[in-house]
Amino acid sequence: MELTLNEKKLLVALEAVGSADAAALAEKMDARREAVVQYANLAGDRGLVDVEKHVSRRYVPTEEGRAYVGKGLPERQLLESFGETIPMRDLQAHPLAKIAIGWMRKKGWIAIRDGVVQKTGNTAPGSDEAAFARASESGAIADGEGVADLARRGLVEEEETVAYTVSITPRGRQLLAEGLDLQEETGTLTREQILSGAWKDLPLRRYDVGKLPKRAYPGKIHPYQRLIDEMRRVLLDMGFTEMAGGIVQSSFWNFDALFQPQDHPAREMQDTFFLGERWPLPAGYERVSDMHEHGGETSSTGWGGTWSAAKAEQCVLRTHTTSLSIQHLAEHPKPPVKAFCIGRVYRREAIDPTHLAEFEQLEGIVMDEGVNFRHLLGFLKEFYGKMGFEKVRFRPGYFPYTEPSVEPEVYVDGLGWVELGGAGIFRQEVTAPFGIEHPVLAWGLGISRVAMLRLGLRDLRQLYKSDVEWIRETPTYGGRR
Amino acid sequence: MAIITLPYRYLERLTGTDRQTIIDRVPMIGADIERIEEDHVDVEFFPDRPDLYSPEGVSRAMRGFLGIEEGLPVYPVRPSGITFSVDPGLADIRPFLGSAVIRNVSFDEEAIESLMSLQEALHWAVGRGRGKVAIGVHDLDAVTPPFRYIASPRDRSFVPLDFEQEMTLEEILTDHPKGRDYARLVEDFHRFPLIVDADDRVLSFPPIINGELTRVTTATKNILLDCTGTDRRAVMTAVNIICTALAEAGATIETVTVEGEEMPTLAPAERIVSVEECASLLGLPLSAQEMARLLCRMRFGAEPDGDSRVRILVPCYRADILHDWDVFEDVAIAYGFENFDAALPATATVGEEHPITAIAGAVRSVMIGLGYLEMMPFTLTNERVLYANMQREHLPGTLQVLHPISEEQTLVRTDLLGLLMEMLQANKHRELPQRLFAVGDVVEACATFQKFAAVSIHPAADFSEVYAAADVLCRELSLPYTVVESADPAFLDGRRGDIIVDGRKVGVFGEIHPAVLKAFDLEHPVAAFALDLTAVPGYPAPPGTP
Questions:
Q1: N or C: which end of chain B has fewer CB within 10 A?
Q2: Element spanning A408, H or E
Q3: Smallest CA–CA separation between B492 and chain A, in Å?
Q4: For residue A116, what are the contacts with CB-CB under 8 A and spacing of at least 6?
Q5: Is residue A229 within 8 angstroms of chain B, CB to CB?
Q6: Rg (CA), chain A
Q7: DSSP letter at A205?
Q8: Which residues in B lie closer than 8 A to residue A357 (C-beta atoms)?
Q9: What is d(CA B515, CA B390) in angstroms, rounded to the nearest whole number?
């Protein structure tokens, strides 16, 4: 049995008295009472001492009560402030009148007649006053007659005190009799002790491996950012170049360049965050306007009607990162282009656990000679596979700027097939005005959906208004692969 | 999105197959099953296929897709002899009118409801909330041709649907529920669109409400259809979809002569498409013969035109075929998305990280080394968090959202520090110390760029702690800087410094002002620092703008 030095000291302190209060022991051992209780519990576990806990309740004056200490209860003070009678009006001027008059009447000490207060003569102190006097004297009283009345009036309050009595057991005595080595134990080694080799002769304190010290928390990348970085790594590995760009876009780049008709419901203020700002149209915008009105030089009919430049100049908070994709393609019209972006997008949605007005979208595009629909499905399978979704299937979908369009679904254990994002080949009405001559494969997904699946979240808001505790408790490495 | 109710018995009778086959296969023509019920299924169809917004339309498509009946559906029309005139005064109000007569309908309550829901779905998808197209159906036998579509004075009156009293057009806009819903579409005009018969009786006040006079009931045998609007193509799409759906249900269609034009023809549009273009888009080496066969399953008329082309007839109800690729998508759907062999192209490319995210990544690795936790606050915030609580002046380049969804999200953030203070407030009950940082986009005068901020809260948080941390970050980002005393009111005087790079203030650090702490309901000192990441060497210029 390896006792700590403190346990040994405790046994020594108990040798003469056999049993003592923890506070007394603390004084004797020059330690804090809490520490002595801790040593005693440790020694208690080994059967060397018995620890007895006594809980006692007592009553101490409250803040209001302390104001009356030494002076007496307010009704007594008021009673003694006048002779046999006093006009009510005069009595009411006394600072304690508000509280005291009611009590004097209740206790039957006074009678009020025609606006005059008269003592009844029956003014002997009650048990409450006696209890209060005791509390005034000693600072605290045990429960007893009158105390409950004082507590109800909020003049005293209950206070719980805990005392510990520590008694040495026969086994403890036996150990003492065998003799204890009271040399100080060494905690942290010093430079001197290490260099001189003195550590070899020192009694080194042994630590309890069953006891975890206070928890430490490291600095951490946000769990959602780690997921984003994982997706970025997958796409960089697949040979994609990363794009970044502005949150604020003109309607031209957010909608018109993507052949979204100007009367499309997504362009109404119910669905999109519009700003008061306007932004001039880029050079060559006429090719886009011609595409909307007549289908340009493609086999398209266009949307018909008249295209409004003013409508295209209105700025919005980007509703998708596709606005960055089309600008990237306009700047790089020659193949091959493989690019991706993960960025925040904005929808005018009422916020609830599964809908936010802003969230991250991932988007990938591939433009190359000879790429086709089968390649689009190939990229989707590869990407989702690398994200850990082994089973992927495809259904026809609809997006205004792609044709054909696909809705990919992934299989999630416990949920079945889950729709995850959308994909398609950019319509020629989108690519032709920018001189892009080869098919553009495109796909996108709201990655907060993936985050909910991977991080087991019920409320998307946790991603953006995070509980520190959640970040501290979410492991950096989830154990996948 | 349009969710269409498909009653099994009716659908099975029209399609000629069992409900399970339909439920299993309908997603593969482009639909999401919403709910499977005892006697019906609710299916969501895409906005580009309004021809699928009725059981008749779905059945027509499924018969082809399942190989029960392929090729172009033909809808004979014969003249009704009825004429309809259009008042030139409508040119600037609601110029286009489409019309047809539909005879021998037999409605039960369910069929009327189905027609009404088709009408509503078309109002949404084709009519853009009735502005572009509004549809009216009338009991033809209650009125007398010829009909006139006129621009009427606003004080004319009639009995609108669901009312017993006559109301003026103006009263309808204020007192009738439909009038209130759609008043914005006409209220600015001096005259209102109105449809009247030979005896000057009112059929309809488009796009608001029909008259009670021509209400369609189970006793109705013949229908007059009116579609009015601002876009001719959309108006005719609505006419074609309704006529062909009712024809599928057994009615016969007759033409109406509108200003000399006999309509509808319900005739297909011809298109000649390239076999090679389709094959290379889809990655499928189909012959002209195979392509035509697949298109017939999608209810096109299609036949090879030599080996390299296919001549197709597009059914009049297909509003979505704008471009040849729209036809090729139908080839892919008929082929079956599940039958495609996914492949990766051979071109090798090298991935490249964007410099902005590279810098953000470097910031993260330094900050976690300093023991800070990353936060990813919203970019939409408000005056209180951004400026008022921070005791800072409202920045002139701050963008304001025109129609915010809540008081919490009215501005686009120009800085991150206030958002981190808000985060500390939300985490007040969590163990201290808390050291938090964020890196992300901010916007000033339409330009997006990245900023960084960090906060440290605990009883001993002070100037020296953040000065040391700010110094670490700048050194690790290879950012040579100097420090001068700061005047930032968010910080405590005498305990704040500005980070200067090339003579420009790019950051600030120090102890947060106690009044700011109070505003965020915090009870311990907070030391904070912030940095504009455009100062970091290698940050690409210019910052992103629209």
A1: N
A2: strand A402-412
A3: 26
A4: A85, A86, A87, A88
A5: yes
A6: 41
A7: P
A8: 380, 405, 409
A9: 9
Residue to mutate among B448, B456, B476, with most A CBs inside 10 A, is B448
Q: What is the largest CA-CA distance in chain A?
A: 115
Distance CA A408, CA A378 (A): 12
Give the helix/strand (H/E) hosting B426. Answer: helix B417-426
pTM over 0.90: no
Cβ of A475 under 8 Å from any chain B Cβ?
Answer: no
Question: Tokens in use for B213?
Answer: 């006079």
Taken in order B117, B122, B123, B128, the sign of the CA dihedral is: positive
Nearest chain B residue to A395 by CA: give it.
B28
DSSP letter at A48?
S
Longest dimension (CA), chain B: 93
**A-B contacts (CB, under 8 Å):** 255
Tell me whether B432 touches chain A (CB under 8 Å).
no
Q: Give the H/E segment covering residue A377.
A: helix A373-386
* Whether A391 contacts A409, CB under 8 Å: no
| pLDDT score of B546 | 64
Q: Is B269 helix (H, G, I), strand (E, B) or coil?
A: strand
| Residues 289-348, chain A, touching B (beta carbon < 8 A) | 295, 298-305, 315, 317, 336, 338, 344, 346, 348
User: Which site among A214, A224, A248 would you substitute to test the B interface, given the most B Cβ atoms closer than 10 Å to its Cβ?
Assistant: A248
Taking only the tens place, the pLDDT of each residue in B65-88 is 999 999 999 999 999 999 999 999
In angstroms, the separation between the Cα of residue A133 and the nearest Cα of chain B is: 40
pLDDT score at B385: 97
* Helix, strand, coil percentages in chain B from 3-state DSSP, rounded to 5: 35, 30, 35
Give residue-wise pLDDT tens across range B334-374: 999 999 999 999 888 999 999 999 999 999 999 999 999 99
Judged by CB atoms closer than 8 Å, whether chains meet at B446 and A315 is answered as: yes
Structure-block tokens of residue B32: 């999401």
Task: Please identify every stretch of chain A with a pLDDT value under 50, giving residue numbers as ranges.
Answer: 481
**Residue A256 identity (one-letter amino acid):** D
Contact residues for A424 (Cβ-Cβ < 8 A; gap 6+):
A376, A397, A399, A401, A402, A403, A404, A405, A406, A442, A443
Q: How far apart are CA A4 and CA A10, in angstroms?
A: 10
**For A53-62, B181-190, B247-256, which range has the lowest pLDDT when averaged over its residues?**
A53-62
Residue A162, pLDDT score:
87
Spatial separation of the C-alpha atoms in residues A135 and B272, rounded to whole Å: 106
Residues sharing a CB contact under 8 Å with residue B334, sequence separation 6 or more, in sequence order: B65, B294, B295, B297, B298
* Burial zone of B520 (CB within 10 Å; 0-12 exposed, 13-18 middle, 19+ buried): buried
Q: Is B406's Cβ below 8 Å from some Cβ in A?
A: yes
Look up residue A352 and give its DSSP letter: B
**Residues linked to residue B4 through DSSP beta bridges, in sequence order:** B43
Q: Beta-carbon neighbour count of residue B359 at 10 Å?
A: 21
Statement: residue B119 has pLDDT above 90: yes
Report the pLDDT value the prediction gives residue A481, as an integer from 0 to 100: 42
Of residues A105 and B50, which shows the higher confidence score?
B50
DSSP 8-state class, residue A432? G
Interface pTM, i.e. ipTM: 0.92
CA-to-CA separations, A276 to A251, A270, B57, B398, B400, in angstroms, rounded: 12, 15, 43, 11, 8
Pairing of the two strands B209-210 and B202-205: antiparallel
Phi, psi of B35 (to 5 degrees): -150, 135
Q: Which of A78-92, B18-32, B523-537 has the lowest mean pLDDT?
A: A78-92
The model's confidence at residue B545, banded by pLDDT at 50, 70 and 90, is low
Residue in A219, A253, A298 nearest the CB of B373: A219
